[in-house]
Amino acid sequence: MFPAQYEDLQIMSHAVIGFPSLEENEKAIAGLAEAGVKLIELQVPFSDPVADGHTLVNACYEALKHGGSVQATLDLATTVCARHPEVTFVLMSYLNPLFRYGLEELFEKASAAGIKGMIVPDWPVEEIEPWLPTLDALGLSPILMVTPNTAAERVEKIAKASRGMIYVVSRMGVTGHETQWGEKFQHYIAEIRKHTDLPLAVGFGVRTAEDLNALTGKAEVAAFCSQYIEWQRDEGSEVAANKMKSIIQEIDSPQA
Amino acid sequence: MIRSENGYFGEFGGRFVPEILLPALTELEDLFFGLRDDPAFWQEFVTLCQEFSGRPTPLTPLRRLSKQLGGAQIWLKREDLNHSGAHKVNNVLGQGLLVQRMGKQRVIAETGAGQHGLATAIMAARLGLEATVYMGAEDIERQYSNVFWMRQLGSDVVGVTTGAQTLKEALDEALRDWAASVETTHYVLGTACGPAPFPELVSYFQSIISDEIKEQSMRQMGRLPDEIVACVGGGSNAMGAFGAFLETPEVNLVGVEAGGISLEDGKHSIRLSQNTGETGIAQGYKTLFLQNDDGQLGDTHSIAAGLDYVGVSPILAYLSQQGRVIPESATDDEVTEAFSLLMKTEGIIPALESAHGLAGGFKRARQMKPEQNVVINLSGRGDKDIFTVARAFPQREWTEFLQREAVRSTEALAKKRGH
Lengths: 256, 419
Description:
- The complex is a heterodimer of chains A (256) and B (419).
- Chain A is an alpha/beta fold.
- Chain A is 48% helix and 14% strand.
- Chain A contains eleven helices and nine strands.
- Chain A has a nine-stranded parallel beta sheet with strand order 5-4-3-2-1-9-8-7-6.
- In chain A, helix 1 runs parallel beside helix 11.
- The two termini of chain A are 30 Å apart.
- Chain B has 419 residues and is an alpha/beta fold.
- Chain B folds into three domains: 158 residues, Rossmann fold (3-Layer(aba) Sandwich), CATH 3.40.50; 213 residues, Rossmann fold; 30 residues.
- In chain B, 46% of the residues lie in helices and 17% in strands.
- Chain B is built from 16 helices and 14 strands.
- Chain B has a six-stranded mixed beta sheet with strand order 3-4-14-9-10-13, sandwiched between helices.
- In chain B, helix 2 packs across helix 4.
- The relative contact order of chain B is 0.16.
- Chains A and B meet through helix 2, helix 4 and strand 6 of A and helix 8 and strand 11 of B.
């Protein structure tokens, strides 16, 4: 399930369905679960992923060549949700593939597959609000994004529509670059907490053990995604899972 | 001019963007909504277009060609005579006024044929702004002369190498830049697409075209034209040519899409006319997109880089659904034929994009009576297409010249490096 507010930092990582292949996805997810990753985003690949940096853009293109699709994501979800009950699976997608599939049917099938939440970066809160009764009935949590330039009254609105957790975009820009975790960031987090009791998942620029240490005690979830996909791309899923494991051990038993 | 309901035109439009872009879009919308009904602002815009871009552009009768085709009288609205060589500059100058009011120091743009990028580079140079233009690597190859001029004007042209490397990918990349730079940068979107308020805002500035057509028709024909024809890529020149006539049902409005090579997937850019496009939500807005069953946006083809786009203005999708705009298409071959016909009969060199309007307009004019009038929006001039056209009409002398020129250019570079 999603962590409780102020629970110790958990890691959320990522799978782009079809990258590097559908078979490899299953193994990679098993590796992440074994490494101690508590939440995994299952990303439906999309031809035009505008909120993603080049790592995920290229992974999407590869994934589409290797059978990645909404249906493949639902099929994989059914398998991995049953196999890894200790992991919370979240559907991540741009809106169009879901829209084409049929939103209502998609929500039902995702919920039936065992998916607990949804991250859809180009689906604004105003468009989500009418779906909340349906999503609540299905137990499918919309995890909305807050960004550093989101005005307070909008944070309030987003917090109201969010379920499970809120995705805090750490900085301006797209996924896959570094972020600073200084005073300004802490102030940003504190401002969001004024509007919600939900746990916060911080993403964009979480790439190292230092980043995770910096987030310990500040957020409940760290989204460690692009860096993991780069490891997977360059060194294979097994090495990537091992690296993830050692990084998680590092934050569990801090050196200093 | 058409107005949206909360950013929507019927079921199309909206604002489907990552949260990070929302404040800039609302800021832009607030500014635009505050200015669009202000006659002084419109006058400021019109004056700028006169002083800088040579407006009003003429309405040119094609006497010889009309007679030859034997149908309606054909007139060209000469957007090709704008500074920068296309209608794109109208929108860019308008957005320049907004940039000045917002106090932003940097602009970014996506471009297909390079005309919008070129117009943006010109505006940025004139206003002393920093500019980055995103252009598909494939389009850079097709429209290198525009790339050359953008760089000479001081803009940074970034080749986009993802996907099919055309306009769609350039737009994605511009949105990514904007997500990082939105507080200091204005995104000069080049067509009547994208998230609200862009479709409405771009159509507003481009409607200067139809304002002029209206006035010029009354003066030159003594009445309004029977039909207005424009090519449709994203839809900005079409919205510009149609805007002032939307409430005048006796004037037919015809949009000509790129029929490419065939109706096979990936071989054309027809979204409106053959039931090829289907409702989707991407690139910040809802419209008819070429896409597969999984909602992945499709590949497109057109001989004209500026029409090679997967979506279409939500306003045109709506007007076409309502039956107000008649969708047509023209194939690459029909386009080169119309291109050649206009050049040889009237001495005007059209852009390949605009030649789609010509092909569609000529076809329709033939079926009409000599007392009827058709206005075709000649959205841009063809100089930029010299390399593409040279391949369509191969000439030994041209190829030999290019070989000699390559040698001279290499020598000039070596000499520069030597110093």
